[in-house]
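Quick one, probably user error.
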């Protein structure tokens, strides 16, 4: 039975409330609510009375919603506009960076981010860009990043930097660099603790080196597609290591990390010349991104982030990758999809050793959407968003003339936007790193991605596996609770009983994934953990004292102890001691295998 309209509107209003949502996003949501209340309700009622299935409802609602959007100047109300370079904005941002760089302030990283943003807003060869590069070189000199300083001097000269100041700075930097190299050559070096990258704990499948051969993909009515193990698994076992099909950098790190490889390169980032939103660590990454996806999103990025946020952006990037996979020929993509038998696409049996880029695309294209479970209210909301996106793509990318000349290709594009937004909503995974905060490191996400095989793992609020982001961007799936032979592997969709009460978890999962969770934690109402009420708080303090050091040797030793304890005491779960040990075990894996912010020492030095 569908939820009542009142309940749906309550959920929708709650969805609009997070403080991180921009005013343009709130405006979009308000416009949809207005359309729904004043125009669409009779059509929604007709969908329900005629008992239309999801596909039929979409076909019925698309032209009506499109007409309302056109007649009500929605894009104008959302202030959607082309992203262009802005000389005045570039100068303003550089001035703000100068204030952060001031000797009495010395917020160097904040200054670098502002200079990077200034570079992104400036035109190629302009004085504004040259000055921003020069200022960035000065920070690098102060921070003794001599090679980065030389790179910025080169970039400033390429941008026609005026005056002779760079000549003197270059001499100073080269002298300092020579001294530093001599000092390093003469000093004795202590080898740092090196932690080897995780590997599969068991032999890999012959056809898929990223999956242990004990894992099988099965399908039934209760669980849909799901992953089971043919052998007993122990805590600490690694059973999958996979690269994402698509990733999108977090908006807050746009001027710190490369948009392509996501490397943390704030001191030497270079801009896309077509937008103000993407920066890259090298010409190689810039070219790779453009050829793989950026050519189809460049003119959209600003509005995508400010009006739609990450889900539609990832969906558009997936479509861009799909089109480039078929040699930038949307008609070839359509021909491929017309004959694709989705029921035969199985990433666990596919031969990845011989897989083409089209085969890999197939494995993502068939990821679950849960569209058939959605109420017509949400069907309409997705159509509303997809229609606006579709119009922007036609207006601002090379797909416009292609779709204008071929109605079937035009329809395919809208269908893909709708489908991939649902795929992303149901299958996106966070990629994390160790970010430095005041006096400690914490796990934070730097990107969101979709994985063909890891996405086959179902959810549990008491998961038995955990995704750990490796330094190269792949994700390793670690076992965190013993798993019996023949049992299913369960991931957590960012909703676990340890941190969330059952009512909240079920609301979150129903809202985002359109299913009611019946996992063991929900069935038996496992408790959440309140660290303030723990009996053995000394043990927790001891764990935290080791984790805060971030010393790989001590953390590895603690991880081994916890691994042994969790393997020996599976029946204790969900007792506090077992849950706290599991949390600490996962955090130790993150410390050992996640990327750690390369600039942590500078944050320590520059922040008060």
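Nope, works fine. Designed sequence:
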């Amino acid at each position: 039975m569908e939820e009542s309209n009142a309940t749906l509107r309550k959920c929708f209003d709650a969805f609009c409330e997070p403080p991180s949502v921009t005013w343009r996003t709130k405006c979009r949501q308000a416009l949809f609510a207005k359309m729904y209340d004043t125009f669409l309700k009779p059509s929604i009622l007709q969908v329900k009375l005629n008992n239309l299935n999801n596909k039929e409802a979409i076909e019925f609602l698309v032209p009506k919603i499109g007409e309302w959007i056109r007649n009500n100047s929605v894009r104008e109300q959302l202030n959607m506009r082309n992203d262009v370079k802005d000389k005045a904005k570039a100068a303003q941002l550089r001035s703000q960076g100068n204030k952060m760089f001031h000797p009495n302030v010395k917020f160097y990283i904040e200054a670098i981010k502002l200079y990077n943003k200034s570079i992104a807003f400036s035109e190629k060869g302009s004085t504004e860009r040259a000055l921003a590069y020069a200022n960035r070189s000065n920070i690098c000199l102060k921070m003794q990043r001599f090679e980065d300083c030389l790179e910025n001097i080169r970039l400033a000269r390429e941008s026609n930097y005026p005056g002779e100041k760079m000549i003197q700075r270059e001499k100073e930097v080269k002298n300092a660099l020579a001294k530093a190299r001599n000092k390093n050559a003469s000093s004795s070096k202590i080898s740092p603790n090196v932690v080897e990258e995780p590997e599969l704990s068991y032999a890999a499948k012959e056809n898929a080196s990223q999956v242990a051969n004990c894992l099988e993909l099965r399908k039934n009515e209760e669980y849909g597609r799901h992953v089971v193990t043919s052998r007993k698994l122990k805590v600490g076992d690694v059973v999958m290591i996979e690269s994402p099909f698509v990733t999108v950098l977090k908006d807050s790190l746009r001027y710190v990390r490369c948009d392509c490889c996501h490397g943390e390169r704030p001191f030497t980032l270079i801009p896309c010349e077509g937008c103000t939103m993407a920066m890259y660590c090298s010409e190689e990454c810039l070219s790779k991104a453009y050829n793989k996806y950026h050519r189809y999103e460049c003119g959209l990025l600003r509005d995508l982030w400010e009006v739609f946020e990450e889900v539609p952006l990832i969906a558009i990037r997936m479509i861009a990758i799909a089109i480039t996979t078929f040699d930038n020929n949307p008609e070839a993509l359509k021909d491929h999809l017309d004959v694709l038998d989705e029921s035969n696409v199985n990433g666990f049996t596919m031969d990845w050793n011989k897989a083409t880029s089209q085969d890999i695309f197939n494995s993502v294209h068939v990821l679950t959407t849960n569209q058939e479970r959605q109420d017509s209210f949400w069907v309409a909301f997705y159509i509303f968003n997809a229609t606006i996106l579709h119009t922007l793509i036609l207006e601002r990318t090379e797909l416009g003339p292609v779709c204008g000349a071929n109605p079937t290709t035009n329809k395919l594009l809208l269908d893909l936007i709708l489908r991939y937004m649902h795929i992303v909503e149901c299958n996106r995974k966070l990629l994390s790193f160790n970010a430095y905060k005041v006096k400690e490191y914490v796990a934070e996400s730097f990107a969101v991605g979709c994985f063909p095989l890891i996405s086959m793992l179902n959810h549990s609020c008491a998961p038995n596996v955990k995704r750990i982001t490796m330094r190269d961007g792949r994700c390793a799936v670690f076992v965190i609770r013993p798993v019996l032979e023949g049992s299913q592997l369960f991931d957590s969709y960012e909703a676990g009983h340890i941190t969330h009460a059952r009512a909240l978890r079920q609301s979150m999962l129903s809202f985002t994934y359109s299913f009611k969770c019946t996992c063991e934690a929900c069935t038996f109402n496992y408790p959440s953990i309140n660290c303030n009420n723990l009996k053995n708080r000394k043990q927790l303090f001891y764990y935290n004292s080791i984790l805060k050091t971030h010393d790989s040797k001590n953390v590895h030793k603690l991880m081994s102890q916890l691994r042994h304890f969790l393997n020996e005491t599976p029946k204790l779960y969900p007792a506090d001691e077992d849950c706290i040990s599991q949390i600490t075990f996962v955090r130790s894996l993150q410390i050992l295998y996640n990327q750690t912010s390369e600039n942590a020492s500078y944050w320590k030095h520059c922040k008060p």
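The longest helix spans residues 23-49.
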